[in-house]
Amino acid sequence: MGNNILELREISKIYGSVGALRDVSLTVSQGEWIAIMGPSGSGKTTMMNIIGCMDKPTSGAVILDGMDISRESQKGLTNIRRDKIGLIFQQFHLINYLTALENVMVAQYYHSMPDEGEALRALQRVGLGERARHLPSQLSGGEQQRVCIARALINYPRLILADEPTGNLDETNEGIVLDIFRQLHGEGSTIIVVTHDPEVAEDAQRTIVLEHGRVARVTHS
Amino acid sequence: MKRQTMYLRMITSSLVRRRSRMIVALLAVAIGATILSGLVTIYYDIPRQMGQEFRSYGANMILTPSGGGRITPEDAARAAALIPPENAVGIAPYRYENIKINEQPFIAAGTELEGARGASPYWFVSGRWPEETGEALIGQEVADIIGIGPGGVFTLSGITADGDGFKGEFTVSGVVQTGGAEEAFVFMSLEALGDIAGGGGLDVVECSVSAPQTELEELAERIGAGTPGVTARLVRRVTQSEVTVLSKLQALVYLVTAVVLMLTMICVATTMMAVVAERRREIGLKKALGAPNGEIIREFLGEGLLLGGLGGLLGAILGFVFAHTVSINVFGRPILFKPLLVPVTMLVSIAVTGLSCLLPVRRATDVDPAIVLRGE
Ligand SMILES: Nc1ncnc2c1ncn2[C@@H]1O[C@H](COP(=O)(O)OP(=O)(O)OP(=O)(O)O)[C@@H](O)[C@H]1O
Ligand SMILES: [Mg+2]
After folding, report:
1. Which ligand is closest to the CA of A44, given by its number?
2. Least buried of A30, A204, B40, B70, by fewest C-beta within 10 Å?
3. Smallest Cβ distance to B1: which of A45, A79, A116?
4. C-beta A136 within 6 A of ligand 1
5. Domain assignment of residue A171, yes or no
């Protein structure tokens, strides 16, 4: 398959005596929307960290966009992260002393060149054009999450990773965020989202359920 | 937008919008810089201050008349002859007369200009010393009151102790600043004063003799015995103790400076350490976004150096105020502002903060980007 964007080949991650992931294999093709579910401690975040090049598996291979990242150095991983991954967090992780606009521009800054106009358009796209000059503390949780999404998208990542993106949001904001995801999916973005919420998983094409670090079930919708 | 602009925006926002956190570090740097620049200012101003303080002690032996009246030129010559020529650094005879210029009272001092010049190294003359009998060197106070400067002409009048009136016209060759009573004097050659006021004799002879204390005491006794009209009095040679005081002061300044620099460094390092710990998530996020270690270092160091520069500027200003206050209280005189000290203080503060940031910044690069998903 030529259009595989991600392939996990029997990856395991062992922390001391804890096997956080055990022989997990997964193939994700371009434009797919995948949901990962499972009880707490089942290894979802561990898997996201490995896919997002922030951690390396203890064994197994990770092929991202044709590259085997399990062989990369720290520096190489940093560059891959910067160029290919868009990250969305449950806790938003906005820099508290920068405005919404500047938070988006930080991602541009590390990637290549800050471009205020483009950053502003990204915020407008998630409906925050009016609040671009606000500090995170002046934004609601839902608004902060949308800034986080704008930041994740600004460098056109090959893969969007979201760990519990709606975990801290109320239903209205969850709806807004899901709408943005649907739109991204419609435009051909590849999305992997970790969630506890079956409603969020509903939209995904495939749902991977982890239990004790293993893939317990896969459901297609 | 240029990357540099964004960089500056990031580090300044971090300082400005998180000011409560950074204020401790800023204070540490500012206080260190204050003490530093204050001490250096005082230290470099002290020789000037001391020079003024001890200006009248340029001489270490003073000859005064034994009874009433004046020292006759013969007595003066006899006394001077008793001083071994190889030890005599400068001998300045003075004759004083009360005078008035524009109805303002001053004192005219006739002296041997060459000797007076050698005996008063601390005098600051704008213009030049008199070269002809029609010229006079006036004190700053005289110049201010009668409103005259080098090249100006004035008339003085007075009455001698014997009751004879006199008058004379002089050209100002220069204005002298001594920081003391001499600023209300008009200096001229003995001949010039003799020409207008008549008579002769000296009120005091200031001698600068280079000899050990014991020899000086013997010399004073010999002069007193040899010339009954003259009493010789010793003045402690202050220039000597001045050097001792200064070198002791220098050691003290170095010591205090080193201690202050160290305390500043410890304080800045601890604060930055806390800042790094507090901002672990932010660092992790930046790394997750693809910031290389070099960039993380650049940002923290940039914040640190900005802090150092600001603290240094603040310290340079406060340091001057501090030095000024000390100078006013100790010497009763204002201090000279040295503009060069501002950039120097800033540079030192920047260097010190940079140095103390090294370890905390290294800590920052150790942060694992995986923590952002874990949500620590
Ligand atoms: N750095 C670590 N050191 C040791 N053990 C770890 C570390 N990170 C994760 N683990 C362990 O690995 C297992 C999987 O953790 P992980 O965070 O991936 O779970 P999760 O599915 O994301 O859970 P949750 O739904 O609560 O977020 C857990 O048992 C956890 O304690
Ligand atoms: Mg998790």
Report:
1. 1
2. A30
3. A116
4. no
5. yes
